[in-house]
Amino acid sequence: MKNKISKKILLIFTMIIFINYTFVLSYNSRKYYQNVNSSIERKVNPIGRTIGLKLYTDGVLVVGMSEVDGIDGIKYKPYENSGIKEGDMIKSINGKPISNTEELVDIINESNGESISIRYQRESEEIYTTITPIKVLDGTYMIGLWVRDAAAGIGTLTYYEEATSSFAALGHGINDVDTNKLLNISNGELVTSQIVSIVKGEKGKPGEIRGIIAGGEVIGNIEVNSTIGVYGKVTNFDYINKVKLPEMLVAQRNEIKEGKATIICQLSNENKVEEYEIEIKKIYRINYKDNKSMLIKITDEKLIEKTGGIIPGMSGTPIIQNGKFIGAITNVLLNDPTQGYAIFADMMMQ
Question: Fewest beta carbons within 10 Å, which of 127, 201, 262, 272?
Fold first, then answer.
């Protein structure tokens, strides 16, 4: 019976391939500048491996709404006057914290049609409302909300910092696929992935790295999903010690030069990464508001032959120049997949 209601009103899991096409952030420049300076003389181990990310929301995310067919044959919209919108996060019902969709289903059914009190969050504001569940033909109760409690996808592990046992990936935040809002997470797992195929990018048509993460080995715990990357702590040191590249200094933005650089990425399951040439075309040194710090172009013919340029799944690919870690790929230009944007290393490590 629970499976039936889950199929009707709940979306529990989705798969995302991570890359950004457009992205806007906002920062307090003075405060951020102080944080940037704190990365002087920090060292990291570039990784460049394709990995999987499993994220679990802090509550359950509302991703849609639909009418409910009552047992009396009438169509209802139980949510209609509740004020709840797509993108809101349900945090508790009748005072009981909600952490996943199964808990939500159980409480709705236990209501027996009595009004339930819902606490939900919209950005930083917490709001209270009530909804009366509707009994449907199979005897269960519905409130007409489509919700999700998890997301998963493929991206690139950027670096490992031995001094803090921490990692960073993607170089941008993970947005919900339906609401396009930054996913507010409670926790998550970084896992190994297996590449299934690579679809080359073309003008106006992004390619992708297709992969699977089912059965993947856990690498670490995801703690933060921010607008400049996904961060957490490594727990599987055997794995990270096998894949990490030699430690190198983190470059400040004033050290980065236009011209040649290289990226490190994995495009096969042969358990290795390769280095490819790129060109840094423009550097936006005074940009503190988004992750488009550098305009880059893929120049390596071998990489262009494999991928067509920058494709979804390469978000987080580390960039090296003059023996230093200078940033990571974040965006692709749809009208020219050989070009895209990257975030400064000092910004990613604030």
Answer: 272
Label residue 124 by pLDDT band (50, 70, 90). confident
* 120 & 166 share domain: no
Residue 310: domain span: 6-57+150-348
Cα 57 vs. chain centroid, distance in angstroms?
12
Polymer length in residues for the chain: 350
**Mean pLDDT for the chain overall:** 86
pLDDT recorded at residue 266: 93
CA distance 176 to 224: 15
> In the chain, how many domains are there?
2
Q: Considering the domain boundaries, does residue 101 fall inside one?
A: yes
Task: Look up the CATH number of the domain holding residue 136.
Answer: 2.30.42.10
54 CB neighbour count, 10 Å cutoff: 18
The span from the CA of 249 to the CA of 155, in Å, is 23
**Residues recognised as catalytic:** 172, 300, 315
Query: Encoding tokens for residue 187?
Result: 């926790």
Dihedral angle of Cα 226, 228, 230, 232, to the nearest 10 degrees: -90
Do 255 and 197 reside in the same domain of the chain?
Answer: yes
Burial of residue 226, with CB atoms counted within 10 A of its CB: 0-12 exposed, 13-18 middle, 19 or more buried: middle
Which run of H or of E encompasses 280?
strand 274-283
